[in-house]
Amino acid sequence: MGGLPTVMLSTPAHGRHVMSAASVERSHGDRPLIAEANRLMDRNPGYRVEIIGGRIRVSPPRDGPHGAALTDLMVPFLSAGLHGAESKVVQGIGLWLPSGVEDYAIPDLSLLDADYRDHYIENNCYAPVCFRLVLEVTSSSWKTDVRNKVKAYAGAKIPVHVIVDRKHQRLHVLTDPAGDDYENHRSYSPGEVVTLPAAIGAEITLDVGEILKAGEKSAT
Questions:
Q1: What is the pTM of this model?
Q2: Suppose 56 and one of 9, 84, 94, 189 were both cysteines; which one would form an S-S bond, judging by CB atoms 3.0 to 4.6 Å apart?
Q3: So what's the pLDDT on residue 146?
Q4: Angle 50-51-57 (CA atoms, 0-180°, nearest 5)?
Q5: Which CATH number applies to 64-214?
């Protein structure tokens, strides 16, 4: 999730993987896409590999400001006691998606029920039912972060989805999933303070300007 573009792979009818302009043979089995995704992770340490809508999406390591913004975002959750006996705040945990037999996403930050281990599915992924909130800080994979993942998370009925859009300097809060979208979508600008829905387990307020400033890249 740094300066390189996201790479998308899909499985066309002829049974080959497509990566950019090159096609490569892959084995067939019960989980061919997951097998390929895991191979890509092994060969590219630090890269994030997800399967969304039946396509493998590979994102490069995130940049420093992305990580700084994510850390700043964690602080109010931790201060409110949401990483404790009833819930956990976790970075980079796999979310199993109902949109495809092999689909899964890896949100930047998730708030889960403390018993999430009881909801393990496979491939280090957990069932959507234990997720209270997922959060994404946008990177080079902006389209995936703000479009494809919104559909995926809504379809998985994740109650609250937060997007820190560094490209357009906005913070989005999406609630009430319905179909492949959220019924309520509010956008916030620097200077505003956001209070997240109390249903996540505590009152969390976010200073939009401070979060976006933490995520700013240095001028080049």
A1: 0.84
A2: 9
A3: 77
A4: 60
A5: 3.90.1570.10
Give residue for tokens 């006691």. Answer: 81
Give the Cα separation of 163 and 161 in Å (integer): 7
Domain segments of the chain: what residues? Answer: 7-59, 64-214
Per-residue model confidence as pLDDT tens digits over 6-50: 445 444 333 333 332 222 333 335 889 999 999 999 999 999 999
Q: Length of the chain, please? A: 220
